[in-house]
Each structure stands twice: as structure tokens, then as C-alpha cells.
Prior knowledge:
Distance between the termini: 24 Å
Strand order of the largest sheet: 1-7-8-6-5-4
Largest sheet: 6 strands, mixed
EC number: 3.4.24.70
Structural class: alpha/beta
Radius of gyration: 25 Å
Enzyme class: hydrolase
Family: Belongs to the peptidase M3 family.
CATH architecture of the domain at 3-191: Orthogonal Bundle
Amino acid sequence: xxxxxxxxxxxxxxxALSACSEQKTTSSPSAESENASSTSQAGENNILLQAFxxxxxxxxxxxxxxxxxxxPAFEKxxxxxxxxxxxxxxNPAPPTFENVIVALEKAxxxxxxxxxxxxxxxxNKSSPEFREIQGKLSPKLSAFSTKIIQNEKLFARVKAVYExxxxxxxxxxxxxxTWMRYNRFARNGATLDGExxxxxxxINQELATLHTQFSNNVLADEENYVTYITEDQLDGLPASxxxxxKAAADARGESGKYAITNTRSSMDPFLTYxxxxxxxEKVWRTYYNRGDNGDTFDxxxxxxxxxxxxxxxxALLGYDNYAQWRLEDRMAKxxxxxxxxxMKVWPAAIARVEEEVADMQAIADAEGADIxxxxxxxxxxxxxxxxxxxxxDSNEVKQYLQLGKLREAMFYVxxxxxxxxxxxxxxxxxPVFHEDVKVWEVTxxxxxxxxxxxxLDPFARKGKRSGAWATTYRxxxxxxxxxxxxxxxxxxxxxxxxxxxxxxSWDDAETYFHEFGHALHFLSxxxxxxxxxxxxxxxTEFQSQLLERxxxxxxxxxxxxxxxxxxxxxxxxxxxxxxxxxTFNEGFKTTEYMASAIMDLKYHTTDPSKIDPDTFExxxxxxxxxxxxxxxxxxxxxxxxxxxxxxxxxxxxxxxxAEVLTADAAEAFMEAPGGFYDxxxxxxxxxxxxxxxxxxxxxxxxxxxxxxxAKVDALMRDRGFPLPENKN
Length: 728
């Protein structure tokens, strides 16, 4: 739903297998000595390979990163890592947890560091020069990953540990880490032979190139398509938006104009407030046609090729379709269970849309607009309905949603639930990759113990991908000496004018809290091994979705929602209106998301030879009775979650799966004496839902928190939908 933790690259398996720690392998003295020597030599010339230096356990040298170092750094890091892998695979000692699994956990320190810098260029400061390098690197990285996966000696040693008597004596976390290691090999072609193994590698290499090309095409359309308007076209737009649009135009050398950039954070408010219907349609089409303009950056052919290759690859492993393979180790287990959840909610969602459109059409008719509600009208007239039904003006609410104060609110919640304290780090003490990036030290409020750092990059700019995401530059581990956390949140808010507060919408405020939930998930980790940080896609969004609920607690509202000019707290009557309207427009929000999630599953359970993306999207949505006034949240040609990597492919439904957990967990707090700040429920939240990461099966962890499995009924109540007939 635009709220996700990004992976640094489409090749997540590379990181999972071999780039998990700041330390080198100690599997043999000769390997350790050789690697230390090569690292030292490379480190003299290439900052991207060097161990993080400086305060707080070492920090990335973002101020010294140079794009010219990227390719040689990857080449050297891959060479070092392959030597480590060979040492583990050819160790003459009998395979044990220590000399196989722990050795793999330690391997790849150099590669992990290079990926940290690569992720910054990829997501935060892309450029044509970087994209050219990225295009050359993608197939090389894929080949590297495949070489590790297809190392027969290595897989044999991992399998031996997995099937050994020692396995039964390991701790629960060690058993799970071993299972995950074995599973990654077995599910990614390690069991194949001969031509099948060769073809598997070829497919991975081509997919890596296609994923990169898809992503770069979308970014190109976001950068190339900017709608410039003039002063006489500003009717209806809030002053804060006008100011930001002028600053965006000035930054692009278009003085005297106002820029509507091709991002959701710019498109959404424009469609909500602009009275110019013709311009609304233009901005809407520009945004939703990203990757679908029939030009050099069109993604339709790429989609078909990606689907064809994914289908062929899983067929080599014996699966009927890609979704079957993808969901096997997820909470849903299979695409049928995922689709069943979708279909329980879908009828209620589109029925609500019909009601919402009727309300909007009535207002348009009463005003003599002489229109039929179209997709570019939905937000505009929904806002009118909001004001008519609830006397709630989104722009009025926005005056109390200052980015800085909301950040303080997030710190408050983190202090109450996690006992964390956030202290600004003095400028210049920690290197950053852009002047907008600020850093805070996170400590335990009681003991003063250093927990980690939190980096914040909040504003949109050229070269930064759209959306909001969280990531880590270093995760907490203790298996080889304690490593503290370097966490990061990234957004695309439109920066307020110099000296003025940056005001955001309620939806954006929820996103801000959501991404901070990911950061708290990183910062609260209490696990031993790097692999315990690997996420389960239909569970990993749950914790962050749950944190959104604290935005509406009285403690946050009363202290931090203050007017940006007067400093006065938000009026109680306005808060009451917000709460009464909490399920307003839920049909739109649920339907636009679910259309994308359902289409994702359909793409990955259908024979690709029968798919023409443009036709397939249209026909499948027609069969679902998709309301014509709404479009998919992510139309296929710019559905980056699914086609720019494999992280959310056949798994975008996971947001809804996580929403069920979220609604059910929220009710646990609502039932508690202390509400959302209840100490006992809060302790269980941290212990079982945040700190454990993936060191425990998610289903088991949730049962320990709640005492039972989650129920879909909670989601239906939360959204104001009627309960499904076949209840859980």
C-alpha cells in the first residue's frame, strides 16, 4: 500500500546467503588471513569496502561514497565472498552448525557494506550514470548469487547439518536459522542437475536485468513527466501545497510556475483540491500511465517476459505456478488461502464504493456540475462528501499535522512502548548522503544503553524513488560480538517553503507512523544471528501497520497535533469529527489496494502465454466488477512491488493478511485496562511481535501475543464492513 520495507536489490537471496555481517569467516586460518589481506589492500583505495568507522560502532561513510568506486567494489567483494564460500564448502572437517551455518552467517561482510551504499544510489540518489552501472551489475550479481546457490559441496554440508542429530540439540533460533539456510538452497535450484541447473541460472540472470529495467523505466516517467501550471490554475489548492509546488518548479528552473510532480505525494492532494477538472484528468493520467506510454520506457513487454521466465523457473522445481512456489513458506501457505482472504473482503469493499460514488454523484448533481464521477473526480468529490457528512475539511486537519511535531509524537510512542529515547546527533558527527538527512541516537531511557542510530530522509527530490520505505544499514546481532542498529526511514513529502512548517495529509501522517514502525522493529530486535532478520512477507508489514494506531490515541492528539501558526492544540470537536469519519472512504482505499493484490495473484497463477498485460489487467478487473470510478493503486506497468524485484511478487496480498493481524491485535489493546498504553499488553507486543524478528515462526509468535490465531472478523469491524457469511 505504498508502505513497505525496501530490499536493496532484486537479488535478496545474495544478501540472505552471503552478506549478513560485518565480520569475515573464520572457517580456516588460511582463508581468514587471505581475506584480511585482500580487504586491507582494497580498503586503501575503495571506501565502499572498508569497515564502518567512527562513533556508534562505526557508521557508513556516506560523505565519501563515489559512484566510480561501485563496480570495482562489487567485483572485489564478490571475489572475497566466493573465497569464503569455497573455504566453507571444502572444509575437510565434518559439517557442524559452527563450521557451516555460523560460518555462512559471518561471511560476506564486504559485500554487505557495498550493498548499503548501492541501496542509497538505487533509492535515494539515482542518476542516469548510476542506472547505466546498475544495468551492467544486475546480471553479474545474479550470476554470483546462482554460483553460490548451485555450489553442490556447500549445499551438501548445509543439508548434512539440517538432517543431523546435532540439529535437535540446537536452540530454537539456531534450528530456525538452519532451516532457513537449507530452505533457501532447496527452493532456489540447488537440487537441480545438468541442463536444468544451467537454465535456472540463465533465467535468474535475465530476470535481474528485466527487474532493473522495469524500475528504471518507472523512475524515468516520474522524472520526465512533470505538470507545470500557472497562477490562474491554482483555484482550490491549499496555500501550503501552492508554496511547495512553486518551490518544486523553482528547483527545476521553471520560475514563475508551479510543479505537480509525478509522485503520489504531489498527485494525491492536487486531485483532492483542484477545482480544474481538465487539469485533474491530466495529472491523473500522467500518474497512472507511468510505464504505459508506448515509448522507450513502456513496461508491458517487460512484464510478459518476467512472468514467462518466472513460470519457467518454478516449473523446473516442480511447481504448477509461481504463486504456489512463492507462498509455500509464507503464512498463507498457498495462493488459494491468500485469494480466499481477498474474496471475503472484496464484495463488501466494492459495495461500499457504490455507496461512496452515489454520495459523490448527488453532490455533483446538486452543484450542477453536469458530470458523471470519473476516477479523476473521486478524491475531489470524496472531500466534499467528507465535509458534508462529517463537516470535516482535510485541509483544516492538515494545519495541525506538522512533520516535525509528528516526529516528536513518534518518539513519544517509542518511549512509552519500547522505553527508547531519541537524541539528535550533532550535524557533521555522522556522515549523511544529502543535507536533508538528519540522524538521532537511540538509547534505553532507563539504563542509557546505546541501542542504535535512526536516519531520516523525509523529502522528495529528483533521483529519489517515489513512496516511503524503511531499511537498515546494520542489524542487531550478538553471535560474533554485539552489533548495534543503524536504521533508516525515507519518505517523499513535499518540503514546505523556507522557514515554514511542512504540513502533510492524514494519510501521509499514517504512512509516517507506519514506516517508523519498521524502524522500531529493527531497533527493538533481540536476536543472535543475521538470518533471523529475514522477513516473512505476509507478516513483516503487520508490526508497522499496527503502529499506525497510536496516531489516533488521545496522548498523541492532545500533545502533538498543534496548529502550525498559532501553536493551539487541535480542537476537541475536530478530533471527534476525525474519529467519526475513521471509516470514511474505506471502500476506495480497500478496493484500490485489493485490486492490485488480486491482480498480482492472478498474474502469477495464470499461464503467461495467455497474458497480454494491458488486456489481462482490463479483462480480469471487469470480471471482478471493479468499479469504473477507481483504478488499481499500482497499475501493472508501474507495479514496482511485483515487477522491479521479487520481494512482493505473488505476495502483495500480504498487506491485507497483515491487516487482519493488525485489526485483531489492536482489539487486544482496546480490551485492556490501559488501552493502547497498557503495560502488560505492551510488554507482550515488544517481546513476541517486535524483538523476536524471524527467530520464531510468525504464527507461533502471534499466538503467544494474543493467545489464539487472528480472526478476519476484526478487520471487517475495523473497516465498518458487514461480517462475511463464512466467518473464521
